[in-house]
Structures are given as structure tokens and as C-alpha cells.
Amino acid sequence: MNQAVATPPRIDSLTALLLPLADRTLLLPNVAVAEIIPYRGVQTSPDLPPWLLGQLGWRDLRLPLLSFEAASGGRAQLGATPRVAVFNALGGRPRVKFLALLLQGIPHSLKVDAHLARVDAELAPLELAAVQVGDGVARIPDLQALEQKLADAGLI
User: Fold this and answer.
1) Which of 25, 47, 126, 156 has the fewest CB atoms within 10 Å, counting from its CB?
2) Contacts of 95 (CB under 8 A, 6+ apart)
């Protein structure tokens, strides 16, 4: 019997999300984001690190709400139209399935080429790369390092 060997399909593009922050734009595959929700009901505490904005209720869970800007050495900001991106956690911790990240506007979905052009730009902590997206530059975040930052601080 003659069987053909199946080769996996080649991926030339993927659907991604541009996530607006106060001082940069992040680019992630849309499968990394579970949901975009309004900024609301954040429980804060004075003893939190500046990059941890508090806890946010989502689907009967309490999620840590992070500021990517502050975690990368900048300053947390709450703009006029804040949103929250709920991410799938990547660290394999049994009690941590999702994290929340503060956004400064509405994300934009787009198809991107699987081989994005890298931009020679200085990267902040927690950034893996800078890439050209249309006329702008977007940053690829290191979500595992962000999650590890929470673990190192004993917060998850």
C-alpha cells in the first residue's frame, strides 16, 4: 500500500494584535490574548510594586493587573481610554492560567507576514524584538519573563 507523507502546511502569515500602551505598541499573536475587557474594579494595595497595579476580577478569577511600561523600567500611566488584555499564562504554574495587562486604547487586529522585518532599536527589559509594522514600530513582549517577574516577587 502506498501512503503519501503529509507535510505540515506552511504558515506565511498570522493574525496578530497591536496593543497600544502609553509609550509603545506591543505585537502579539491573537491566540495569546484570551479577551480584551474594560478597565474596571481594580483592587489596589499600597505595598505592591509599581508595575503591579492590583487585582482584577475576570470570570470568577482574581488576576494580577500589570503595567508593561513600569515592569520595563518606565512609569505606569492610566490614560483616557484604558482597556485590559487578559493573556494566557505561559509558565506552566498550576494556579496561574491568566494575567492581565493595562492597555491605553483599543487593540487593532491585523494579518502580519510570518517573517516580519526587524528594526534596529534599543530594547527595553521584557522586550524580545522590535519589528516594522506598516509605517510604525511594534515591540514583541517577553510574556514568560513578565510572568517570571511576578513569581520572583512572590506574587504568584
Assistant:
1) 47
2) 156
Q: Examine residue 29 and state whether it is found in any structural domain, yes or no.
A: yes
Check: CB of residue 15 under 8 Å from CB of residue 30. Answer: yes
- Number of structural domains (the chain) is 1
Nearest to 51 by CA among 27, 70, 32, 24: 70
Residues facing residue 35 across a β-bridge: 86
Give the residues across from 5 on adjacent strands: none
Q: Whole-model pTM?
A: 0.85
Residue 101 near residue 85, CB atoms below 8 Å: yes
CA distance 127 to 155: 21
Query: Is 66 inside any structural domain?
Result: yes
CATH number at residue 29: 2.40.50.180
